[in-house]
Write a structure and sequence with these properties.
There is one protein chain. The protein is α+β, with helices and mostly antiparallel strands. It folds into three domains: 38 residues, DNA Excision Repair, Uvrb, Chain A; 85 residues, Immunoglobulin-like (Sandwich), CATH 2.60.40; 46 residues, no CATH class. It is 44% helix and 26% strand. Helix 1 runs antiparallel to helix 2. It starts with a helix and ends in a 7-residue tail after the last helix. This is Calcyclin-binding protein. Pfam families: CS, SGS, Siah-Interact_N. One of its GO terms (cellular component) is nucleus.
């Protein structure tokens, strides 16, 4: 505010022609410059605290999203009704090489946040951005290397690998057995009866030697 006053006084000084008026404006200019010198600008910490206190309201964590990819970008779609009506500065995304944070402020009286950590591969912070569309925020993560991602995060990849390892054995029949055991354990009574029946029939065929033979 003081800076704005100072700029206005300087502008008036350039237009003033009468000595008395110039003297008054010059004195005011020195006074304002002294005040500004004694009031340093807020530190980044103050700015962060001010940002937090300005949030207010109820904060909602976003868990639902959709995503796809091109050669150059990973695209995350977040549905938020009416987000296009907000001022652009109310939709903020901070990127690092392996993560991003989304903050949407004061949308229908609520704030919305979403954090993605441990992205599967590095992204370019400078090349990443966000776009506001109708009822949707699109987060564009620029890939550092143009390659296909099998999933979004390292955690997802590890989870998939563990699941695959449970059924992916060198013996195909063993993998099928593991799958049947899992279905049996998690299934209802009807599922268990069906698996039991199939199992019994399979054993009977094996014991009869009911296999086609060349004559």
């Amino acid at each position: 505010q003081l800076q704005k006053d100072l700029e206005e006084v300087k502008e008036l000084l350039t237009k003033a022609t009468r000595k008395r008026l110039r003297d008054v404006l010059t004195a005011e200019k020195h006074k304002l410059e002294l005040e500004i010198k004694n009031h340093p600008p807020p530190t980044p910490k103050d700015v962060v605290e001010e940002e937090k206190s300005s949030l207010g309201g109820y904060t909602v964590k976003i868990n639902n999203y959709g995503w796809d990819q091109s050669d150059k970008f990973i695209k995350i779609y977040i549905s938020l009704n009416g987000v296009q009506k907000l001022p652009a500065e109310n939709v903020q995304v901070n990127f690092t090489e392996r993560s991003f944070d989304l903050l949407v402020k004061n949308l229908n009286g609520k704030n919305y946040t979403m954090t993605f950590n441990n992205l599967l591969k590095p992204i370019s912070v400078e090349g990443s951005s966000r776009k506001i569309k109708t009822d949707t925020v699109l987060v564009m993560c620029r890939k550092k290397r143009e390659e296909k991602w099998e999933c979004l995060t390292q955690v997802e990849k590890e989870s998939k690998e563990k699941e695959k390892a449970a059924y992916d054995t060198s013996d195909p029949s063993e993998g099928l057995m593991n799958l049947l055991k899992k279905m049996y354990a998690e299934g209802d009574d009807e599922m268990k009866r069906t698996i039991n029946k199939a199992w019994v029939e399979s054993r009977e065929k094996q014991s009869k030697g009911d296999i086609p033979m060349d004559i």
